[in-house]
Amino acid sequence: MQTCRRPVSSSMVQCCLQSTQPVAAARLPYRVKVSAGKRYAWCACGHSKKQPFCDGSHKSKAPSIPPLRFTPDKDRTVMLCACKQTKGAPYCDGSHFKVIFQDLMKSIKGVFK
Ligand code: FES
Question: What would you give as a GO molecular function for this chain, any one (predicted)?
Answer without folding.
Answer: metal ion binding
